[in-house]
Amino acid sequence: MTDATMSSVTAPPPVPTGRRGPVGSFLVHAALIAASIAMIYPLLWMISASVRPEDEIFASTSLWPSSVDFSSYVRGWFGLDVSFGRFFWNSLVIAVLTVVGNVVACSLAAYAFARLRFAGRNFWFAIMLGTMMIPYHVTLIPQYVLFLDLGWVNTFLPLVVPKFLASDAFFIFLMVQFFRGIPRELDEAAMMDGCGAWRIYWKIMLPLSLPVLATAAIFSFIWTWDDFFGPLIYLNDMNSYTIQLGLRTFVDSSSTSDWGGLFAMSTLSLVPVFFFFLFFQRLLIEGIATTGMKR
């Protein structure tokens, strides 16, 4: 036998590449498109309903209004005793302070757990993880009594101050996993140059941790912006309402509800979240993808 014949006889069979055929690929894409349409339809319907006349909002499930009417936006913005812009400002203040508090306090706590050595570190880390299993409603009454005694009820303080005390264990755990992936040789080299723990945190850990910090910032902003239960418990004055409490005022079980104003203001309330995510989505994906990986 020649060499060519031997190679053709002994050559292993080709390994399947796992690629789908045209029919399989079409079915997969069709299913994904259908699922995407089903998920985005309520959002599109809400936007469509916000520009419909009041008597046509629930008359059809079509996304195309018979006529475009922006009066719902004007009525929703100025129709309440307090301008809806006030609710936007309150939500923005609370969300920004929450982002700052979570990023600063949780990164400091995570740096201590990941890099510093102190007595009972593993024990306190386990306790911190255990707090993630406690439902929020279990601690609600004790927290309310505490804030009531401090005179903080009907202010933003109960919604903001705990964030500066590293109260979100999820973000601490997320940052600990990220910090552990940063080589310790960088810390050792910095110590040889005379850097202390604080300078290592500020000059080395934070600049290398932008993805996970952005992840914590985005989730903090979105969760705080969408929060309804916390403001409902602690805020009583309408001038202190957030967007979610402001939206509730459009629906009245004992009288007429302004559905057009509700859908219009709901549409506007999505704009800050959309742009916040749009600007930081690259860092968000990078932070989630690299958390816990060695670099």
Helix-strand blueprint:
Layout: H1 3-10, H2 22-49, H3 71-78, H4 84-115, H5 121-130, H6 140-150, H7 157-160, H8 169-180, H9 185-192, H10 197-208, H11 210-226, H12 229-234, H13 243-248, H14 259-290
What does this structure look like?
With 295 residues, the chain is an all-alpha fold. The chain has a single domain, classed as Orthogonal Bundle (MetI-like fold). Helix content is 66%, strand content 0%. The chain has helices spanning 3-10, 22-49, 71-78, 84-115, 121-130, 140-150, 157-160, 169-180, 185-192, 197-208, 210-226, 229-234, 243-248, 259-290. The protein is globular.
Could you list the spans in which at least 5 consecutive residues all have pLDDT below 50? none
> Which H/E pattern describes the elements?
HHHHHHHHHHHHHH
Number of domains: 1
At CATH level 3, the topology is MetI-like fold
Calculate the mean pLDDT score and round it. 86
First CA to last CA: what distance?
52 Å
**CATH architecture label name:** Orthogonal Bundle
What general outline do the C-alpha atoms trace?
A: globular
* Cα-based radius of gyration, to the nearest Å: 27 Å
Number of strands: 0
- Percentage of residues in DSSP E strands: under 5%
Largest sheet data: none
Number of helices: 14
Helix content: 55-70%
Q: CATH first level: which class?
A: Mainly Alpha
**Helices and strands: which structural class?**
mainly alpha
The CATH superfamily label reads MetI-like
